[in-house]
Design a protein that fits this description.
The protein has 171 residues and is mainly alpha-helical. The chain is 58% helix and 0% strand. The protein starts with 15 loop residues before the first helix and ends in a 19-residue tail after the last helix.
Length: 171
């Protein structure tokens, strides 16, 4: 059972930060709530990128209610920097922006194709003697109405992201 400080009851175990820094973990350790002993990799990357002293200063300057978010951001940035030392988070953002651009292009092409198919089908209807739907309820308008629904069902196309490759967020 864990206490709020991230240490087990009974024999206190040091937090991941104090364990890595090989120091005694005090009861009021600023790292303990955010770097539990069972997640040593979390602090290791943050320490490698930012340094323990800088992290300590940042956490102490923040109000307690904002520290969790700050640690999450530091962990994310540190992990991104370990994966990509040059670009870090910016590389991930750039890659995601490229994916968005690619998907927007695919969507525009699909929409253009849908319009092209509608025009072709409308031309086919007029070529075969079908008239546009009229409020009279004629048999030809009923036929056109049922086929028009099939045409507009193409607006509900879904892009399968599985074909776009492995996600950036996977570990």
């Amino acid at each position: 059972m864990k206490e709020s400080g991230g240490r087990k009851q009974g024999a206190p175990s040091p937090c991941a930060a104090c364990k890595l820094l090989r120091r005694k973990c005090a009861q009021d350790c600023v790292f303990a709530p955010y770097f539990p002993a069972d997640e040593p990799h979390k602090f290791a990357n943050v320490h490698k990128v930012f340094g323990a002293s800088n992290v300590n200063k940042m956490l102490q300057e923040l109000p307690v209610h904002q520290r969790g978010d700050a640690v999450s951001s530091m962990v994310y940035e540190a992990n991104a920097r370990v994966r990509d030392p040059v670009y870090g988070c910016v590389g991930a953002i750039s890659s995601l922006q490229q994916q968005i651009d690619s998907l927007q292009t695919q969507l525009a092409l699909a929409q253009a194709e849908a319009v092209h198919l509608r025009v072709r089908q409308t031309a086919s209807f007029s070529h075969h003697g079908f008239e546009p739907a009229s409020p009279s309820g004629s048999p030809s308008s009923k036929l056109l109405g049922s086929q028009a629904k099939a045409i507009f069902d193409m607006d509900m196309m879904v892009v399968d992201q599985a074909s776009l490759g492995e996600s950036m967020w996977s570990c």
